[in-house]
Design goal:
29% helix, two-stranded antiparallel sheet, alpha/beta, Spore Coat Polysaccharide Biosynthesis Protein SpsA, Chain A, 243 residues, 9-stranded mixed β-sheet
Length: 243
């Protein structure tokens, strides 16, 4: 099993906080968001990590080299980080993506190790962490079918029909990753470089079984706005963040 972290973005919605610092290195409870993720991955023996970088990439690389010499990193650069989105970042990792089972995550998600444990140890081969709640327009939403199976994913879904928010952490089987890579290629070829990677998952849901784990009982948040940062500073005080 490998990890894949998407951390190329500019995070304009957090300006001026991110004018000189990439979002993944913002301090939450005494250490960067990225460290919360890497510490959890290491705790569950996911030590081969690919990180997609762009904005202030040297800062991230230097931080990792200084603090995680025991882990095996591959750095992939999204040179077009200003005008592209996560679909293009994952697409750049196609060779890595298709090689093995993958824990995929956005680099701006704060979560305790217990969430990663739940995803990794899930009975399902391909599973997304979902915060079951009422959603707003900005969140990536999911709709469920039978037996925890997902039938739709995307920001544009009708809020009232949605189960909750996909918080940006997933475990994907090797077979799904192969299909996902092909779907990403079709999306990029069709002009979808500015789409979220969930746009390449949606067309696969009829053919491939993708499930969810409810993580609404755990303190986790995807950080997009300043108020999310404030909430994250409160959530990180939870005992579940003490490794």
């Amino acid at each position: 099993m490998q990890g894949l972290i998407l951390a190329a973005g500019v995070a304009r919605r957090l300006y001026p906080i991110t004018e000189k610092t990439p979002k993944c290195l913002l301090d939450i409870g005494g250490k960067p968001i990225l460290s919360h993720q890497l510490d959890a991955l290491r705790q569950y023996n996911v030590n081969e990590i690919t990180i997609v970088l762009g904005y202030f990439k040297e800062m991230v690389v230097n931080y990792i080299i200084d603090n995680y010499p025991d882990m095996d990193f591959t750095f992939i650069t999204n040179e077009h980080f200003f005008e592209t989105n996560t679909s293009y970042s994952v697409y750049l990792c196609s060779e890595k993506l298709v090689s093995t089972e993958t824990v995929l995550m956005n680099g701006d998600v704060l979560y305790p190790p217990a969430l990663l444990k739940r995803i990794i140890e899930s009975q399902f081969d391909s599973v997304l962490a979902v915060d079951v709640k009422e959603c707003g327009r900005e969140e990536v939403k999911v709709i469920e079918g039978d037996g925890n199976r997902l039938v739709a994913i995307g920001k544009e879904l009708i809020q009232e029909n949605s189960l909750g928010e996909f918080i940006g952490v997933a475990k994907l089987s090797k077979s799904f990753c192969i299909a996902f890579s092909a779907s990403l290629s079709r999306l990029i070829d069709a002009g979808g470089k500015s789409d979220y990677f969930e746009a390449a998952i949606q067309p696969l849901l009829d053919e491939y079984d993708v499930y969810y784990e409810d993580v609404s009982d755990l303190p986790c948040i995807e950080i997009d706005f300043a108020e999310d940062l404030d909430q994250a500073q409160e959530l990180v005080q939870n005992d579940l963040f003490q490794l």
